[in-house]
Amino acid sequence: MEIPILQPRFKDSAHFKSFWEKGNGKQLLEFSEAEVSFKDFEKFAPYYYHVDEIGDQVVKDVYLTKKFHEASREIEQYIRKGVSETDDIPESVKKLFLQTQKIPDWLDYDLIKNGAELCMRSNLDSLISLRDYCLIGGYDYAYLNKPLIATEALKKGAVKRLSETLDFWVNVTRYDALEIHKKGYEFAIKTRLIHSYARLSLKKHYKRWDTDNWGEPINSWDMMATYIGFSLVFMHSLHKLGNTFSEQEEKGLFHLWKYVGYLLGIPENLLPDDKKQATQYFYLWTSIQPPADKDSVLLAHSLLNESLENPILKYKFQRKNLRYLHICCTWFLLDEEVCKRLQIPDVSNKNVFPKTKWVINKIYDTIVSREARIKKGNKDQMKVLSDYLKITQNSNFH
Questions:
Q1: 45 in helix, strand or coil?
Q2: Which end of the chain has fewer CB atoms < 10 Å from its terminal CB, N or C?
Q3: Other Cβ atoms within 10 Å of 67 Cβ, number
Q4: What backbone phi and psi angles, to 5 degrees, belong to 208?
Q5: What is d(CA 194, CA 237) in angstroms, rounded to the nearest whole number?
Q6: ER-bound oxygenase mpaB/mpaB'/Rubber oxygenase catalytic domain location, by residue (predicted)?
Q7: Residue 304 is part of which domain span?
Q8: Is 256 exposed, middle or buried (0-12, 13-18, 19+ CB in 10 A)?
Q9: Radius of gyration of the chain (CA)
Q10: Is residue 293, in this structure, part of any structural domain at all?
Q11: Taking CA 177 as the corner, what is the angle to CA 251 and CA 223, rounded to the nearest 5 degrees?
């Protein structure tokens, strides 16, 4: 296939200029002290049509040649026991596992530990950030959402989708999780193969896929943007909610997600080392994304209404109140223009809860030790995940 020549097609559009000159983009530039331009655009643009071919081949050789549960069991064996050059297994499987079992020269486990501690220490603010800034803010990028729409994610429902995201995030951000054969490593490999499986299914069954405009399904450049969501955007959200972090924690968070990206098959030169680099990379990527469309609005409202559908809270008034608090946080964390495009309902006193949180975080930071906060944050996050898994693994829940 001849690769189309991509241009920064939305760089003069109102939504792009507004974001980077007045909105959260302007705040990201101040937060990171990055200087942005289009001089490196041509280095990144080809990745819009680039995919994880190794992962795709593993799916073809393993998942598409046997029953799904048999294939899954086989992959789990490779994850837990490892793979060697001499094993009698498909070449693609060997290639994938020899890549992910090789520790890159740049990897620093102490830095990863610092990043994991920031994720845990920020407790429920981490989960608010993931949901009300990273996830819902991502819906404003219309082309990024196309694989979700094409794979009918709306039918699966926001509770299930949120549960899966939370399960992945929690399991890759615990102590030692990313060591070879451990839980976080397992989640990274399985997620990589889920992406490949979804991509191959889309290419086979979804005939309306518009490669020129949308790029390849789940392409490497979109993957980069998604993981900048887990690092730069996540950290900016914590900052907006009044959290502080050390230089080591900040470096650690980027290092953690750089390694997760490496395990997921994202090319290393797309994985930023710090907030300055991440902002520069993100700036280029946003120039190829149009603003929210009707699919974006459906995804955003599905996520907002998740609180009403989710039976974790027993009473209807509790669920309505939780939805209200998430709406308040969304308005506080995202640009007003983005909220309007996603048709986030306007509610009264919307700044009271997030601003109160900001004050509490400033006080909490001075009176509770870092170790105590890490311990409590880990416990509270694991409790939320456990509640979600109980509900979504219940066969009666749809």
A1: helix
A2: N
A3: 9
A4: -95, 10
A5: 28
A6: 154-347
A7: 14-50+108-163+213-392
A8: buried
A9: 21
A10: yes
A11: 60
Asked if 232 and 272 count as a contact pair (C-beta separation under 8 A), the reply is yes
SS3 call for 302: helix
* 2: DSSP letter: P
Q: With respect to residue 173, please indicate whether it lies within any of the assigned structural domains.
A: no
Measured CA angle at 40 (ends 39, 46), to 5 deg? 135
C-beta separation of 213 from 143 below 8 A: yes
Query: How many structural domains compose the chain?
Result: 1
- Terminal Cα-to-Cα distance of the chain (whole angstroms): 40
For the chain, count helices (H), then strands (E).
24, 0
DSSP state of 270: G
**DSSP state letter for 385:** H
Token pair for 239: 């900052």
Mean pLDDT by 10 residues, the chain (398 residues): 83 98 98 97 97 98 95 96 95 97 97 98 97 97 94 82 95 98 97 96 92 96 98 98 96 98 97 98 98 96 93 93 97 97 97 97 94 97 96 60
In a domain, 329, yes or no: yes
Instruction: State the pLDDT at residue 395.
Output: 44
Q: Cβ neighbours of residue 167 under 8 Å, at least 6 residues apart? A: 187, 385, 388, 389
Residue 113 in domain: yes
What's the pTM? 0.95
How far apart CA 32 and CA 54 sit, in angstroms, is 34
Q: At what angle do helices 247-263 and 220-228 cross, to 10 degrees?
A: 150
